[in-house]
Amino acid sequence: MKLIKLLANLGYGSRKDADKLIRSGVVTDVEGNALKSKDFPGLENIRVLGEELDPVGPLVIVMNKPDGFTCSREDPGETVYELLPHRFSKRNPGINPVGRLDKDTTGMLLLTDDGKFLHQVIHPKSGCRKVYHVVLDRPLSGEEGEIFGSGELVLESETKPLLPAEFEALGEKEALITLHEGRYHQVRRMFAAVGNHVLELERISIGGLKLPEDLEVGDWRFVTAEEQAAIFGPLPEISGH
Ligand code: URA
């Protein structure tokens, strides 16, 4: 791949911008020698302003999503993309969330430029469960486990019943819920269906991968190959959160 096209695909600017960047001498090899557009010393040997290049796709990012950020570029307000380097939103192929979280949902969000990975994670048949920690407005009735696990619950304005979900009460107004699909506002609507109201919602795992404990709210990092494999592995141990 040509250096200009590589830089443009990684979001460093349009091809014209990338050409300008190269001409300005800030695209160098590891020794700091300015590269020309025809040079290509290998991905690991290219520096932009002295920094290593961003990884070439396919890539997966894990973020600890804060409250108040939307996952859609079209929605008004702050978006999760603003927590990433600006150039990431100009990459080709683009980076998209692997199943959106509501603006006021926090916790584990994956983002990827890999369409196949995205579909594997969100497709109910992949067996990739998502676990949420929920804080409720009203005390649990004790019937939630049976109702959510029945496979018969139909949400308002839908006709297809939900797949059975696992439910574990953690306290009077606190629970874990494990979903095998991702419908619009699903957890909030499930609790609304049983006469309750979700006050706080946090996604704490996707498949076999838990939200990394060292990831502060608002932070993100690239997912390692091991973590990516873990997503499709057995469920992690999750106890009272
Ligand atoms: N269910 C919801 O209601 N909201 C989310 O953000 C995720 C699951």
CATH class of the largest domain: Alpha Beta
Class derived from helix and strand content: alpha+beta
What is the helix/strand order?
A: HHEEEEEEHEHEEHEEEH
Q: What is the subunit arrangement here?
A: single chain
Short description:
It contains 6 helices and 12 strands.
Detailed description of the structure:
By secondary structure, the protein is an alpha+beta fold. The chain folds into two domains: 3-52, Structural Genomics Hypothetical 15.5 Kd Protein In mrcA-pckA Intergenic Region, Chain A (Roll), CATH 3.10.290; 60-231, Pseudouridine synthase (2-Layer Sandwich). It has helices spanning 3-9, 15-23, 115-122, 144-149, 186-193, 225-231; strands at 27-28, 47-48, 51-52, 60-65, 96-97, 105-112, 130-136, 166-171, 174-179, 198-206, 209-210, 220-222. Strands 4, 5, 6, 7, 8, 9, 10, 11 and 12 form a nine-stranded mixed sheet that branches. A three-stranded antiparallel sheet has the order 1-2-3. Helix 1 (3-9) crosses helix 2. The longest helix has 9 residues, at 15-23. Bound molecules: uracil.
